[in-house]
Amino acid sequence: MNVLAICAHPDDAEIWCGGTLAKYAMRGDKVTIAIATNGEVGSATHTKEEIADIRKKETFAAAQVIGAEVIWMGYPDEFLFDSENTRLTFIEAMRSSHSDVVLTHWPDDLYNPDHTITGRIANDVAIMTTVPNIKTASPPLDKIPIVYFMESVAGLGFQPEEYVDITETFELKREMLAQHKSQIGDWLQDQYGSNAMEMIEVTSRFRGIQCGVRYAEGFIRAKAYPRNIVGSLLP
């Protein structure tokens, strides 16, 4: 199966679905991580160009931990908008990765507008990926990808409908996140008082308690005609 995580910023995939992506990869599925923005505001000491380059390198290093591929969209951090160009870029990401499953932000995650827009666009364009008259570099998909929304930041307002047991891949999730050295150190702590490593421990443990395992990640599947399914495509 081909799995695509479309996330707003470098480090989002690792924080919110890293354990699930690792689990897909361990069973032999092809995993691709698409990052919508370049993370250019994520530093108080580096210039926009410097931190964007650092975060791109960190993204590739994190993906390498599980053998995932990366699609770098490069839109400006904090200024991602729904437009024809953006939609076509998202469609091309799904087509070029031959996506069967797409993991993305919950559109009601109000932490950051980039999260909200990314989740909304990813869900909106899924149905367009099979349409021949919508042209991108890659040919249309044979079937519409199934979209799953991942955890909101701190789990606020989010009640999972499906869980993935990530107990066996939690250390891989930590290793992936550890590659984002520019973020898990001073930036997130100084800006938001947030310890990202502690956050994934607490959130994953809490979701694990909810479903009876040590660590878990929670999801809600987008249920819409004609792309609803019986069962689950989560690992």
Topology diagram in text:
Layout: E1 2-7, H1 12-26, E2 30-37, H2 48-66, E3 69-75, H3 84-96, E4 101-105, H4 113-126, E5 146-150, E6 162-165, H5 170-178, H6 181-192, H7 196-211, E7 216-221
Parallel strand pairs: 1-2, 1-4, 2-3, 4-5
Antiparallel strand pairs: 5-7, 6-7
Helix pairs in contact: 1-5, 2-5, 3-4, 5-7
Q: Your description of this structure?
A:
The protein is of the alpha/beta class and 235 residues long. The protein has a single domain (2-221), classed as LmbE-like (Rossmann fold, 3-Layer(aba) Sandwich), CATH 3.40.50. It is 42% helix and 17% strand. The protein has seven helices and seven strands, in the order E-H-E-H-E-H-E-H-E-E-H-H-H-E. It has a seven-stranded mixed β-sheet, sandwiched between helices. Helix 4 (113-126) links the parallel strand 4 and strand 5. The chain starts with a strand and ends in a 14-residue tail after the last strand. The mean pLDDT is 94. It comes from Cohnella endophytica. InterPro entries: GlcNAc_PI_deacetylase-related, LmbE-like_dom_sf. It holds the Pfam family PIG-L. GO terms for molecular function: hydrolase activity, acting on carbon-nitrogen (but not peptide) bonds, in linear amides.
